[in-house]
Amino acid sequence: MKALMRRRIQVLCGAVLLGVASAAWGFLPEEPKPIPKAAPKPMPKAAPKAQEASPVASPKAAGGRRSGEVFRDCADCPEMVVIPAGSFDMGGSAGDESPVHRVSVRGFAMGRTEVTQGQWRAVMGNNPSYFSNCGADCPVEQVSWNDAQDYVRKLSANTGKTYRLPSEAEWEYACRAGGRHEYCGGDSIESVA
């Protein structure tokens, strides 16, 4: 039951947070460049508490864009957020989520929100949403996986950038803030319900 509830919350958060989030790979390098090994630096004896708690600033995540940077490729394009490369423990101990395993993802960009009805209409020329009176900023709905694939293909053709749907690992990594949370947005069902 807990695994089912967790999966439902992850799916719900994914729909709300990312929708058919298109990952813009057009600005990522083809091959990662090797990082030269440097001599280890001595550790400081003490660091302030605030410094220990804050994450290390990531180097430029991709193509000159910084981790967390928000950008748009066109006026009708989704706002994208640069997600840094990293590793996290994916899965859970129950049901089809097991076994927990370590996954690494390359830096990528993902839609900051779900694709809106206005964005869908601008690219696809229609609005299949049942709740179409909701407004252009409401999420598009009544779309299948195939519809979402058509959307990212057409968006790619319109912009000259490469858009695609996120992989399951990319979605979970972004949703769980790099694996810091058990659920999308927090560590307890109550915090995300």
From TrEMBL:
Residues 77-188 form the Sulfatase-modifying factor enzyme-like domain. Residues 36-67 are annotated as: Disordered. Coiled coil: none annotated. Signal peptide: none annotated. GO terms for molecular function: formylglycine-generating oxidase activity. It comes from the Bacteria. Residues 36-45 have a biased composition (Pro residues). InterPro entries: CTDL_fold (IPR016187), Sulfatase_Mod_Factor_Kinase (IPR051043), SUMF_dom (IPR005532), SUMF_sf (IPR042095). This is Sulfatase-modifying factor enzyme-like domain-containing protein. It comes from Candidatus Accumulibacter aalborgensis.
